[in-house]
Design brief:
alpha/beta, five-stranded parallel β-sheet, 8 strands, 10% strand, 343 residues
Length: 343
């Protein structure tokens, strides 16, 4: 029977590595200890298959006799596929994306068991090989069932020619400056912002990112209400006993530096201490309303799914996207140039 090993890649946004036990019995072995094949079944995407195959080839060079098979899966129905795999008597994949997983986590190994081991490739501790401070352990079990190796870097991409035509000489560094730039761009007949206005866009797309980034600035102090206190079941003296609140440090309240007690968090929500209509929450909503939907196409913004075409076409001056758009932009240019050459 194939071992149930789930190494899960998490992105910040979010691919996850999780490791599991043998045959679902609860008594396992070290992941990959006597397996000669490692199957990668993450979600597919542009260029990802070639990227993982390149990593697989290098891993095989360092580990003679081990075969790495790349079998990426489509995003659609990935959650259902993974749940079925974990429910089966034996499983094929070893590396999966757990961010969509709703199945039994008992098959995932605890990364805390390996963090202080020495990596045979670098000679350093495993926890020094990634951003340990950004990891989010399971507060209910005290286990680290997944590991985040990626972050989404959110960028504002702009058209320099439109900025110049509209008289926007400096890149805005404040929200007031941003609104002023939008006003100038709109006066020249261009749409200032191209952004998706769908449910997914608000939930996990650009609007979701914008709200999270802005809202974080007015909710930092809630950590003082929900962090683990001495006597709490999840209190760790070496972490929570030495942590100090520092709003000037944007990473101060990352999970690796302070533990959040989920019971205190729920209590704060129940008692209205942590709420969506706080003064800070209202301020963020009011500021975002200064730009949307007015400078994102008006009523056309709602339901818009494709933000890329208006920006590429030169109809819109700005587009908010992940850093991955840079590589995709040059790829798109190459594809369009080939089409022009063929015509």
């Amino acid at each position: 029977m194939k071992k149930r090993t789930m190494l899960v890649l998490a992105a910040a946004a979010t691919l996850l590595f999780a490791a599991g036990c043998n045959g679902g019995t609860g008594g396992g072995k070290t992941p990959g200890a006597d397996d000669k094949e490692i199957v990668i079944s993450l979600q597919t995407g542009n260029g990802l298959t070639n990227a993982y195959k390149a990593v697989a080839a290098e891993y095989e060079k360092l580990n003679e006799g081990v075969k790495v098979t790349v079998e990426l899966k489509p995003t659609a129905n990935y959650k259902e596929w993974l749940s079925a795999e974990l429910a089966a008597p034996s499983t094929r994949p070893d590396i999966v994306d757990v961010s969509y997983n709703a199945a039994d986590y008992r098959y995932f190994a605890d990364y805390y068991d390996y963090l202080n081991d020495v990596s045979p490739y670098s000679g350093k501790l495993f926890k020094e090989q990634f951003n340990y401070g950004a990891q989010i352990p399971d507060a209910y079990t005290g286990r680290m069932l997944s590991i985040s190796l990626e972050r989404v870097q959110v960028l504002w991409i702009y058209n320099k020619e439109i900025f110049q035509l509209a008289g926007v000489r400096e890149i805005p560094e404040t929200w007031d400056g941003f609104i002023e730039a939008c006003q100038k761009i709109a006066a020249e007949g261009y749409t200032p912002i191209s952004m998706e206005g769908t449910y997914d866009g608000f939930l996990a797309g650009s609007m979701g990112h914008l709200f999270q980034i802005y809202n974080d600035q007015v909710t930092r102090d809630i950590i003082n209400e929900v962090r683990a206190q001495e006597g709490d079941y999840c209190y760790v003296p070496s972490i929570d006993g030495v942590w100090e609140y520092n709003p000037a440090d944007p990473f101060n309240d990352d999970p690796g530096f302070v533990n959040v007690n989920p019971v205190r968090l729920l209590k704060a929500v129940d008692e209205g201490v942590y709420r969506g209509d706080s003064a800070g929450g209202k301020f963020v909503a009011e500021q975002i309303a200064r730009a949307f939907p007015q400078y994102a196409g008006g009523e056309v913004f709602f339901g818009r799914d494709d933000k890329v075409v208006p920006f590429y076409r030169g109809d819109a001056a700005m587009m908010m996207d992940g850093a991955y758009r840079i590589a995709r932009y040059y790829r798109d240019l190459k594809e369009q140039n080939k089409l022009l050459e063929n015509n």
